[in-house]
Design goal:
Largest sheet: 9 strands, mixed
Radius of gyration: 20 Å
Strand content: 15-25%
Number of strands: 16
Length: about 350
């Protein structure tokens, strides 16, 4: 079943301009949830646009993560003074389990306007990522009201450390698609398990696009199993991401996966921050989640998964363009890497659960 209107943005300048136009046209409410909302030129533009809507009587609510958005609260004063609301998701706390307690972050990127328009994808609000290749979906359809619920759930528990996990893990179904609301859990990693099932169901192709590839053993086995039964398995990630440690840890397992038939493509112009899966050109996932332990275990994420010809066509075109800027993984160079590089990989490997 078709959606009323759907668009895909992989250029942040185009995305931000479209979002600002939609915010400017809002009549009832604007709800924005994001991991990072920087106090730079782009952040200022969004702050001004949201404050203006609040002055006009539009309900404005902003939820930012306290780890990802670290500037002073006064940056958001224009929104609050105009009548809008700004909440900081889970401020950092001093506890005996400081790292684990504070690692549960809100990594979602959701913008919902008037029960009419919803955005979901990979982009934060930041000028520094203007040159990054992203992946964001704009949906203009009654489906947007479902993302209002996604926003409201996290907005309500922004300062809680203890959660009713079953309540906040409910799937939301709509027209052969499912919205998965992932929350931190070491045992119930529903998004990771869903991706594993998607990969195991593949008959022709699996494409993963992710800025950080740190797959757990179950996902690695699923990828190798798919490749060995004749499925074309391709993983696309940046040659050099914005997190060097993640690139080094990724490098450790590339040879084994390559031997198992998994093809790696590295995006070269800059940072690739897109997050998606496409199975057999028919089953898709677009989300805020990276393909790593941190997203699957520690963070609040949101994913749209399912079948929709409009979306899969847009996604296939996006992937084709991404691949045109990629180089192949070189097993010969990998096997010849220095002892020092191997030692650094082993030293950083225990940290993969926090990446």
């Amino acid at each position: 079943m078709e959606l009323k209107q759907v668009s895909l943005y992989d250029d942040n300048l185009e995305l931000y301009n479209e979002q600002l136009r939609d915010i400017g046209a809002a009549k009832e409410y604007v709800y924005l949830e994001t991991f990072r909302f920087n106090d730079d030129a782009m952040g200022v533009r969004f702050c001004q646009a949201l404050a203006e809507k609040a002055r006009q009587g539009v309900k404005v609510r902003v939820l930012v993560d306290a780890w990802g958005t670290r500037q002073k609260k006064s940056f958001f004063d224009p929104i609050v003074q105009a009548g809008g609301e700004v909440r900081w998701f889970k401020k950092l706390i001093l506890t005996l389990n400081f790292i684990s307690d504070n690692h549960r972050r809100d990594h979602r990127k959701v913008l919902v306007i008037d029960n009419r328009i919803a955005y979901i994808g990979s982009a934060n609000i930041s000028a520094y990522s203007l040159s990054w290749r992203e992946l964001n979906l704009r949906i203009e359809d009654p489906m947007a009201r479902l993302f209002q619920k996604v926003f409201n759930d996290n907005y309500a528990i922004y300062n809680r450390m203890d959660l009713d996990k079953l309540r906040f893990k409910r799937d939301i179904n709509y027209k052969q698609m499912t919205i998965i609301q992932e929350i931190p859990s070491r045992r119930r990693q529903r998004l990771s398990r869903r991706y594993e099932a998607m990969i195991r169901s593949a008959k022709r192709s699996v494409v993963i696009e992710t800025p950080y590839f740190l797959a757990n053993s179950r996902l690695r086995k699923a990828l190798i199993s798919a490749a060995q039964r004749g499925v074309e398995v391709t993983v696309i990630s940046p040659l050099n991401s914005d997190v060097m440690a993640a690139d080094i840890v990724r490098r450790h397992s590339l040879g084994t996966l390559h031997d198992g038939g998994v093809h790696f493509k590295f995006y070269t112009p800059g940072n690739l921050h897109a997050k998606c899966l496409l199975i057999d050109g028919e089953l898709f996932s677009i989300s805020s989640a990276n393909f790593d332990f941190r997203s699957f275990q520690h963070q609040h994420e949101v994913a749209l998964i399912g079948h929709n010809e409009q979306i899969t066509l847009l996604l296939a075109n996006h992937i084709e363009k991404t691949l045109s800027y990629c180089v192949n993984f070189s097993y010969e160079e990998w096997i010849k890497r220095s002892r020092f590089d191997r030692a650094v990989e082993w030293m950083l490997l225990p940290l993969r659960f926090l990446m």
